Each structure stands twice: as structure tokens, then as C-alpha cells.
Amino acid sequence: MRYLALPLLSQNLTESTARAQTLSLYLQLSLQVSLSQRNESTMSSSSSSLPSCPKKVVTLKSSEGETFEIEEIAALQSKTLENMIDENCADTPIPLPNIKGKILAKVVEYCNKHAEVGVDAESLRAWDAEFVNVENTTVFDYILAANFLEIPTLLDLTCQSVADMIKGKTPAEIEKTFNIKSAFTPEEEEQVRRENQWAFE
Amino acid sequence: MAVTQQKPTNLDDNEEEEEAGAVAVSTHSPLHGDVLDLTLSHVPLVDLVHAARVSRSWSLAVSSSLRHFRKPKPWLLVHYQSTRSPHVVSTRAYDPRSLVWMDMEVGPGRRQPPAKLASALRSSHSTLLYGVSPARLSFSSDPLHLTWRHASPPSAWRVDPVVALVGSRLVVAGGACDFEDDPLSVEVYDLQAHTWSVCASMPAPLKDTSASVWLSVATDRRRMYVMEKLTGATHAFDPEVGAWLGPYDLRPDHGVFYSVIGFAGDRLVVVGLLGNSEDVKGVKLWGSIAVGADELEEICEMPEELVKELKDDSCRVSSISMCSRGDFVFVCSNSKPEIVFWCEREDASGVWRWGTARDPAARGRSLGQRVAYTCAEVGIGELREAAATGNGRFVVMEGR
Questions:
Q1: How far is CA B240 from the centre of its chain?
Q2: Does A158 have pLDDT greater than 90?
Q3: What is the pTM for the complete model shown?
Q4: Average pLDDT over residues B223-235
Q5: Measured between CB atoms, does B55 come within 8 Å of chain A?
Q6: Shortest Cα–Cα distance, B111 to chain A (Å)
Q7: ipTM confidence
Q8: What is the DSSP string of B37-95?
Q9: What secondary structure, in 3-state letters, does B222-246 show?
Q10: Which of B52, B56, B270, B354 would bridge with B62, disulfide CB 3.0–4.6 Å?
């Protein structure tokens, strides 16, 4: 608690100067009072002795009920979560019934990494490359999660990774990789195949 | 074709055991709707041709992706012709949408350009490839230059004339010819009637510079525009009327010592080099202020670091070629064919910006080769037709 040093008022001061000085003293006093009030309240709420701002954390719940905590600043990368935080719906755990636990854990890891400061672009790119260096089905799950949570950077990264799976493949190879049932009738398929015989060799 | 790699798959508890290396049997694919469109926007056009054949929904997704997520962009086509017999022509293409370089392969059914295109391969106004010999005039104007047409040669013998295709008329003008009375003569070939006719000669000021090496050519639907590269003086020729118009002063900045002309969409564009040939200080792009107007406004200046790359080791820039189409302007330095400069108009903002593309396979390629540049708006339809007729397909060789 600071103690105010009260200046001695000289007898020869003019009325306006005296008024100004009184006003200034009054303001200093009221400021001290409010500061001490705030310190008291902070000291009573936080467990540590330092009056610092607590980090806001958002809790996410996977489809199996597992909970994951993510710092608010990292969560802001998801437009969906950002909207919830803005509307103050993020105080209770947010249920994500279509995202599995192991995928959600990785998504949280991605957001945390991309919220870090001072990471150089080159190493972040390498980290991203490792992140998508997983099985196809896992990448598809990342895409679903990134799409639902609206995380543009993750969505771009995963879509690019899937695009790389499409490059250089013939239609038959693409069908196999993605397990797609062709919707063309057998006659149409045969015609297409004959037309493009040379193109698909 | 590139080797495909299939990643070994991990399995859910509910799915059957698969052998290592086999394909995942996923019960669903998340790839549909916007997500599929977004994914396809990262796939080069040449691969989208195959992707569109996978299923009906993928075919629709390819169209949707190209329309809403990442539109096709004009390709730059680089044609190399060996200066030694049999003067084989090979083509490389650059797709700025996906930043890939491709080699063009010819199929068994290909109708070759004139067997030995003994005449020098040249390009004009971004879309025409041609060769003039005493025996015939061969030319190609389709986007991928897969079909070549031949005409009887013009009556006057010319060396390196200006050639341009305007509508259904082929204009041949000038060309240094010592033995002819009129070095400025102009002849027009009617593609439908297959006949040549003589038209009004080129304007007298072009007397000493009437070869294509001195003149930059651009065409719109009705006219051919010819600009003297060193002075900027421009004349226009209307083949329907057979008359010359101009001259127009298309050099808004007097610091320009070399300029070339083209059309980007409906707009006349000029690329000019500032400074002098020993020391290029800058490169600027100008465009006509309105369609049909001959007054120019500055569009975009090339950033300094790119201008440095344009100069060769002795800081000289000998000459540049320009191809333009739609929202793209490509600029190539004849002394540094491995690097291509482009200026693109961004759809959303309307702002133009410069960039570069390096051809990874160009090193040493231009030795003993003549190079000609054209530009084409290539879509799925063009690639499909090229493959279907066996005339050509594009294969990405590098950086898969």
C-alpha cells in the first residue's frame, strides 16, 4: 500500500491553483482506493500469490466422451470454436459427436503448434508434412474434422495431401485408391475406355 | 506415367483385416461436396481430365471446382525447333493454375506438322504458329497447335515477313526482299476461298523495319496491329477493307527503349523496357484505358528483384517476347529462356501483379534450338480432345 505524500499548501497560492491541486489529490486518492480494492479481490480468487490473468481454456468432448483442453488462443483457429467463444458458449465442454478421440487429439496438437509464436516457416512446413504423413483413412478423418471445425489452414493442408494422391493416376487407379463405385454404365465405361485408350496407357 | 504409391492402411476395429499393402476398404468417403471441390482445386488440369472420368459425381465436382474454387488459367506453350534437319519440333507447357511444367507427347495418330518444317518456326500474336517456305505457308492456330494447315506461298518472296491471322484471313506483310520492287507489299490469304490477293502496302515509315524481327504483332477480331519494337510507332491494318490506319503513339513513357504489343482479353497491352539495352532499369505493363481506345495507362511495374533476374550476366536484355491471353501476360527474354515472367490480373481485386516461373528442364535445352512462344486458354475439353484424337497429351515430368 502506497502512502500519499501530501504536499504542503502554500499560503500564497491563487484560488484556481489550489482548486487544481485539491482535484489532483482527490483523484490520486480515489485511484489508490480502487487499486487496493482490486488487489484484494484478485488475491482472494487466484491461488497463486501473483495477481496474473488466468489463461482461458476451452474443453472439447470427442464422440467417445473423452475431453481435451485447448487454449483459447489456439482454439481461435477454428471458426466454429471462435464463434462459440464470441457468443460465450465455450464455458462448458463442447460436444463434437462426429470426431473421434484420437483424431481430436491430433487436431488440438495441430492448433497448438500453429498458435505458437516464433516458429520459422521452414520448420512449420516440415512439421505439417509430417502431420499428414499418415494413412489415407486418417487423412480423410482430418479433413472431416477440419471441415466441421472450419480450420482453413488444416483443411488446405489435408486437401493438398489428398490431391497429391490423385495426381498421376488413371481413373481406374483413382477409383481403387478412394474406393469409389463408378456411376457409369458398363457400356459408357467401355466407350470412354476405347476413346481414351492411348491417353490412359 | 508417374509411379503411384499406395500407403499401407491402418484399420478400424469394425473393418476386416487386410493384407499389408492392400487398399483400404473404407465404408465411406469424406470426399464429396465442397471438400471434394476444394481437394480438386489442388489437382493440376492434366490430372483433372482423369479425375472427371472416375464417376458422375466426380465429373460434376471437377466442373464445379474449376468454376468456383480455382479457375483454369492460360497456358504458356514453349516450342523448340531443332536448327538441324529434320527440324523436329517439341513443346513444353506451363500451367500457372497449378504451377506445373509439362512435356507434350505425340500419339501414334498424330498428324505431324509439315514433315520437315524446313522453314523456321515462328509465332505471332500469342496464338499463331507458322513457317514460310518457298513451297508453302504452314500455320496452326488451335490452342494446342495440334492441327496444321497449309497454303500456297504468297507471290512475292519474303524473308521473315509479318504474318497474322485476323478472322478468316491470313495477312502476310513486308519481309526483307531485295529483288522485289515493293518491300512493303502486303498479301492476304482468304482461308475459305483459298486465294491470295494483294492489298495496300505497309506505310512508308516501316520501309527499313518491315521484318518480323523488328515488329511486334497483335490482333483483335478485326485488325492486325504492328508496333516497331524500338520506336513504339504503331500501325493497324484492317484486312476486310484492305487499309492501313494510324500511326498511333503507344509509348506513354519516353524512358522506354523497347516495347512489345498484345491483347489481354479485349484490352490492348504494351510491355516496355525502361533504360537502355546495356542497362535495363525497369519493366512496365501498360493497357488501353478502354476497349478500342488508343490511350494507355500504366497497369503494373515489375518489382526490382524480378528485373534483376531478367538481365543476363552482362546486365543486358537483348529482346523480349510477349504472349497474352485473358488475364495473363507472359514475358520471356530470348537470352534466358529458362525463366518466364508473368503478370496476372487477380479476379477478386482487379489488381495486377508480377511473378516468375522457372522451367526445371530448360537448362541447355535451347542450345541449337529455335524457340517460339504461344499462349492458349486450355480447359478440360481441349485436353480431352487432344487425347481422344491421339494428337497429343501433356505429361508432368518434373516435381511430381
A1: 26
A2: yes
A3: 0.79
A4: 93
A5: yes
A6: 15
A7: 0.75
A8: HHHHTTS-HHHHHHHTTS-HHHHHHHHHHHHHT----PEEEEEEEESSTT--EEEEEEE
A9: CCEEEEECCCCEEEEEECCCCEEEE
A10: B52
